[in-house]
């Protein structure tokens, strides 16, 4: 994959690329939105801890497909308030910080999820040449 950051655009606000080129013939994985809930049904209070769980879940999904965070083409994050952005971004940067190419990224503030205690949801697109 190739990061696309045309010189005429303002630099990205954070650790992401404006676009990602996915080569033809790549296998694609699209995760469902992952919430910050552990396998034992516990939900931490902080946005960072919830986001960390989301990214751990995504790492496991990617591993099952023979992929790693380096294969992520795009990350979409959802938080329920602006004050949760920093914790989410810290967890996202830790997740993608192991790669030499930054994926595309979108972050949205939403009114809520299915349960009040959820503060973060994350989904990704990943691609790997066959």
Automatic annotation (TrEMBL):
N-terminal signal peptide: none
CDD domains listed in its UniProt record: YjgF_YER057c_UK114_family
Superkingdom of origin organism: Bacteria
User: Pfam families annotated for this entry?
Assistant: Ribonuc_L-PSP
Tell me what this protein is called. Enamine deaminase RidA, house cleaning of reactive enamine intermediates, YjgF/YER057c/UK114 family
Record lineage? Bacteria, Pseudomonadati, Pseudomonadota, Alphaproteobacteria, Rhodobacterales
